[in-house]
Every structure is written in C-alpha cells, then in structure tokens.
Protein: Lysine--tRNA ligase
Organism: Glycomyces artemisiae
Amino acid sequence: MTEHEQDSTETGDDLPEQMKIRREKRAALLAEGKEPYALGYPRTHSLAELRGLFGGLADGESSGVTVSTTGRVIFVRLAGKLAFARLRDGDGTEFQVMLSQGKVGEEALAEWKRLADIGDHIGVTGEVVSSKRGELSVMADSFQITGKALRPLPVAHKALAEETRVRQRYVDLIVRPEARDTVRNRARVVKSLRDQLDAESFIEVETPMMQVQPGGATARPFVTHMNAYDIDLYLRIAPELYLKRCVVGGIDRVFEINRNFRNEGADSSHSPEFAMLEAYRSYGDYRTIGALTKSLIQGAARSVFGSETVVLADGSEYDLGGEWAEITLFGSLSEALGETVTVDTPYDVLVAYADKVGLGVDPKWGPGKLAEELFEHLVVDGLHAPTFVLDYPEETSPLVRGHRTTPGLTEKWDLYVRGFELATGYSELIDPVIQRERMEAQARQAAKGDDEAMGVDEDFLRAMEYGMPPLCGMGMGIDRLLMALTGLGIRETILFPLVKPE
RNA sequence: GGGCCUCUAGCUCAAUGGCAGAGCUGCGGACUUUUAAUCCGUAGGUUCUCGGUUCGAGUCCGAGGGGGCCCA
C-alpha cells in the first residue's frame, strides 16, 4: 500500500468509489451500535456439516431445524422482498442464505441491502430449507456482519492476472479453488514424506539456517550481518554438513525439511528460497537411498491422488508407478553424441563435441563440468519418464564417495522427472583425509574467484575425524516435488514466492 | 546478461496519431426463488513514471520501473 493510499484512509477522499462506500458502511454499522468486526458468532454447524446433515432435503422442503452458521459472502442477488447470498467456508464448501421479508422483517432486509457486500464475513441464524429450485439454504431469522470487507473482490468469472495472483495470494485463495487445493496438496505431500520417514525410523532435526560458513552445495549464498558478534553470517545453501554432523553423533537415520537460500536467478523453475528435504542413512549406498527416494515420491503421489499415476494441471496423466529407468551420465551422453565419451575423455575432445552441437563453453569449466553441460544440453530434454542418471564426475561432486569401480566418477545419481531435476542422491564420502583434500581444492577454486565454490569447513572435518559410518544421502526440492506431482509452475507451488516490491 | 512481448476503471479487456470505451463489479430504482438473473437509470480514469516529437499522444520516439516468454 502506498503512503498516499494510507493517508487517504483517514478521510476516504481519494479512494476509489467502491472502497469509499464500504468504509461508509463500516462507519454506519458503528454509528448504529453494531460491531463490524465481531468477536465471534455462536455457530452451531459449519457449512460442510449442514451439507452433510440436510443433503437429502427435497426441493422446496423445510427441515424444521434452526441452525446458526458462518461464511464469507461470495455472491448476492436481490429479488424485491427476497434476497439471496451464497456463503463459502474456508474448506471451499458453499451454502445459500435466503432473506425473506416475511421471515426476517422489513427492517433487517433493508439493512442487508444497505450494508452487506460480497466479501463480507457474516453469521446467520435460521431454518434449513430447500429453495424451489432445490438449492439447500438457510432461511434467515437474523444475520450479523462479522467481518466487513473494505475492498471489493475481483470478478469471480474472469481469471486473475498471474501477477495479481502471486502478489495478492490472499485474493487468489479467495477466488480460485485450485489455489486452495495446491495449499492442501502441499501439506499432504509434506505430511506424507514425514510419515514415511518416521516409519523408516528417520529422526527429524532442525539445523542452522544462519551459518558462519556456507557449505553442502555449490551456490552463491545470501549474506547478512550479526550485530552482537559483529560478524557476517550466511543464509544456508544446504543443511548437508550439519546433518552429517548428526550422523557422526549417532543419529544414524536423520532428515530435515526446511528452507534453503541461494542468491541466484529467479525463473519459472528456480526460487531464491526453496524448501528441501535432505535425508541421510547409515549403512546404505546410493542405490539404497535411491530406492527410498522412489518410495517417498510414490507415497506422496498416493497421498494426493490415491494413485501413483498423477493428473497434471493440463489434464494429462503421468505415471510415477513401478520401476524407474536407470541410465549413466556418460553412457547416455555417448549414445546422444554417437561417440564414446568417458570420464577420461580429454578436455579438448569434449570442447570439439560442444562446438559440434552448438554448446558455448565457459573457460572456467573443467572436463567433468563440461561433460555434465553436454549431458544437460543433449539428453535431459528427452527424459520424460522418471529416470535415475547415475555416476557423475568427481570434479563436480566434492562431498561424494569415489565410484567403487571407475576412478574419476562418484556414486551419485540425479533423478529426472518430466525433464527437470527433482532429487539427487549419493554414497557419501566418509574419509576425512580425502574430504579435506576435496575441500582444499574447492577453496583454491574460490580463491581464483569462483564464488560458488565451497571453503574448508574445519569443524566439519573435525567431526568427520571422529569417524562417520558408511552413509548414503539424498536431497529433494519440495517445491519441485509439487511441480512433478501437479504440473504447476514454481510460483504456484510456493504460497508467497518472492516478487520485486511494487 | 541478450532478444521479444506487455502495463488503460475495483476485475478482465477494447480504442487508424483526432471526444478514453465495453462487460462484470459498484451506486439508485423495479421484481418473494435467484444461481455469471432480467429490466430501467447512473457513477467510476495520474492510460506505470519522466522527458521528447506533434496543432493534437493511451497510441510515435528516448530513458526508467513492474510483469511475462524465449535464449545463453
């Protein structure tokens, strides 16, 4: 709200006509000794309960039962000495209210016409009846405005502009059932993940969001300042290093569902703050954690759709059931290029392939990063069905154990669903000496100006030196899981995504 | 970072460089069974901002801001 608009709230002089009128109605209620913002209303039934109890009423029939209920007015119609209103409850249930001059009285009906608006919260008391047209209704004996709306709701039958939906999500939630469904689906999915992990004896913890040294991923962090210690702190880019400290301490199945922050671009699939599940399990490898990830996703699908086949926003179906494809990074890349490429393929040869397929090469990339970029350029778009991509170069995975058979590779997978990356998993590196070498190499990259590279986390290394059990781990974006299950864009799955200030 | 598109009434959108409009919403009226009712009447504008060209700019030009799409 602008200063100008705030100032004018005092007088109402500069407000749009519709808002001015509603403020006048609020003032009129107060002047008549009626509280436009009530403490409550003595409700006997919710709208959903009324539907359940009186759904069998025949057209035009009266129940003889008087009830009190509440809701937001979403539709009004006047027909002379009779008025209709449709109420809606938070769960989306709608229910009609009728105000007949014969029942409610001339004065009350006039008050309704004079002071009630679409958008108001009201309480109403009366007999449950069915209208001539068979619409289940409360025939009001009395009503009360319990929460006066000062702004008009947008027209219900035209889609809100996307920007308005995102910036004013509260309005989006009022007018669009799908927006409310998304909130509920997200809650179901997160609950399903927690329940499944709990059933597998995983312990949920919360680790620092503000860190002295960011780590656990390669990404640019947000920086903030702590006055008491006069030090800069970083919003975490991943919880990994703390969850692994937990494992050292004996919490050997551990997970966290919480927010990460990455100071990078924002587009249709990336948000600067995003919710993530990370889980670590001792005595398992990347296949162990891959199987767990698959069952978590399939369980989440069942929790929303009751099936491992999900229905996307465009109406199409997507099958997450059964076994999922497994390919290797270099195997699939070789197939796409028609040339054999391995982790040992020289840098110059890879650059030549990049030129051939029109991929621009960043000189900062090493051969491993270049191979990954080639894979993303050539293979990823074709990965429609759920697919595990296995065995990534060591160069780009500084926290991952070396591959058991192939030097230069790591035991890492990325899970792709409908062409985007949904989750990643590893056989974790547990040798503190190799971990120190990797971190020092990263620190040299950072010193050379790579602002995504990690530094050496001495406390983490100290923890590892106390002995870490054989370990596997995974990370999965919650927002992306919602996208995978529903086909929505990231700005729909996040309730209040970051937007530039108005 | 580059390219393209976009910003007008509460909402969704129109308007060859020539009086800024429609539908819904709102307001006044008619109607005791409406479901996006119908009928009569009526109000509502810093056309994102600043500057320029022009007799005249929502429209053309420049700069800036917001949003979207595509590419890297």
Notes: Residues 414 and 424 of chain A are 4 Å apart (CA to CA). The first helix of chain A runs from residue 3 to 11. The first strand of chain A starts at residue 62 and ends at 79.
